[in-house]
């Protein structure tokens, strides 16, 4: 079952076999449990249209969406709908990072940056929950226009049908005048004068699509269908060189079991020192080789390992690679409760500290490794 989240976009078309669509918002579950989305990394496809605060908080337009003092009216309706109470931007951003890293298709609809002074200036672009996408839109010359004609539309774009529906129904309203394609943006559709109506963005580890928003219900339905048609990389053919298990000798029994389970479930290369280093080999050279050839460095965290010199060295190498490439490299695996290193505290970790939850956490790790 493929799970789709639409935020600010409503799908009213026929049911799509094998697809479950949630039209929900990005508010905190404790503020409005019924209208809050699940963690973003639980979705295979995410479509966000932050046309108003209500759009991105609760999933669809509300009675105050077109009001100039929307935030004030929301708060008067329910004191918990105050933006600071209703929306945890930092948490949702972390979820989005995890979703993108996990291969989710993400589509951001361009929107006017409605800016409101309500205990400080706030913009609806908060709803992108991706600071890099927000910054990119801001510096790319967002223009509010009104048009029905298109210039060039890429024939091989998965959103060709969406643009066709737009031209026949509500037309288009927003475009980018200067997206700077050398900055990680590849335009897929343009206005007759050459402004971009959508494209694929790659901003370091942030990947997704920016599109002019739907202006009719038919266009909303087609946007969902086209988003589902975006081809994902075939896990079998991805450039994947396995996982390196960084650990201390004290945790060897757990690491051996983890390696056996990963191999049994299809992970082709799980680097473990005792399995890779033979008598006479250079210990340092073999470990450096293992790190270099591994796509991920899994750090098994325990009270002993966090102070182990070898683990510190391996973690330092892995973090430097992550910073330089912009890709997720370090996968923290918590084996027992301990004080996490400062630079790992912001990462979502796999919690193997509870034996009864081992299989569930293993399944999450396998998903991170693109193993079906």
Automatic annotation (TrEMBL):
Pfam families: TIR_2. It comes from the Bacteria. InterPro entries: TIR_dom (IPR000157), Toll_tir_struct_dom_sf (IPR035897). The keyword Chaperone does not apply. PROSITE patterns: TIR (PS50104). Residues 239-372 form the TIR domain. Gene3D superfamilies: Toll/interleukin-1 receptor homology (TIR) domain. Keywords: Receptor. The keyword Transmembrane does not apply. GO terms for biological process: signal transduction. This is Toll/interleukin-1 receptor domain-containing protein. It comes from Neoroseomonas soli. The lineage of its organism: Bacteria, Pseudomonadati, Pseudomonadota, Alphaproteobacteria, Acetobacterales.
């Amino acid at each position: 079952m493929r799970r789709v989240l639409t935020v600010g976009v409503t799908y009213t078309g026929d049911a799509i076999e094998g697809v479950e669509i949630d039209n929900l918002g990005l508010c905190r579950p404790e503020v409005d449990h019924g209208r809050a989305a699940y963690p973003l990394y639980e979705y295979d496809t995410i479509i966000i249209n932050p046309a108003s605060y209500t759009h991105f908080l609760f999933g669809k337009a509300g009675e105050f969406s077109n009001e100039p003092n929307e935030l004030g009216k929301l708060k008067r309706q329910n004191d918990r709908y105050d933006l600071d109470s209703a929306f945890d931007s930092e948490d949702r951003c972390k979820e989005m990072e995890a979703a993108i890293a996990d291969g989710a298709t993400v589509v951001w609809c361009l929107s006017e940056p409605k800016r409101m002074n309500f205990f400080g200036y706030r913009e609806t672009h908060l709803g992108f929950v991706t600071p890099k996408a927000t910054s990119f839109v801001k510096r790319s010359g967002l223009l509010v226009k009104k048009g029905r004609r298109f210039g060039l539309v890429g024939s091989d774009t998965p959103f060709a049908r969406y643009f066709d529906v737009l031209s026949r129904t509500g037309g288009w309203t927003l475009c980018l005048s200067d997206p700077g394609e050398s900055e990680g943006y590849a335009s897929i559709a343009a206005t007759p004068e050459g402004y971009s109506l959508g494209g694929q963005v790659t901003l370091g580890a942030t990947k997704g699509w920016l599109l002019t928003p739907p202006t009719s219900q038919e266009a909303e339905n087609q946007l969902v269908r086209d988003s589902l048609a975006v081809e994902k990389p075939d896990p079998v053919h991805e450039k994947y060189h396995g996982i390196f298990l960084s650990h201390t000798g004290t945790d060897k029994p757990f690491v051996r079991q983890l390696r056996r389970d990963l191999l049994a479930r299809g992970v082709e290369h799980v680097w473990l020192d005792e399995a890779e280093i033979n008598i006479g080999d250079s210990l340092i050279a073999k470990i450096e080789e293992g790190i270099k050839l591994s796509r991920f460095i899994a750090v098994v965290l325990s009270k002993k390992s966090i102070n182990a010199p070898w683990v510190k060295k391996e973690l330092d190498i892995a973090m430097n690679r992550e910073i330089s490439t912009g890709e997720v490299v370090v996968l923290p695996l918590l084996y027992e409760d301990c004080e996490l290193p400062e630079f790992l505290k912001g990462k979502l970790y796999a919690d193997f500290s509870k034996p009864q939850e081992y299989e569930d956490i293993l399944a999450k790790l396998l998903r991170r490794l693109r193993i079906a």
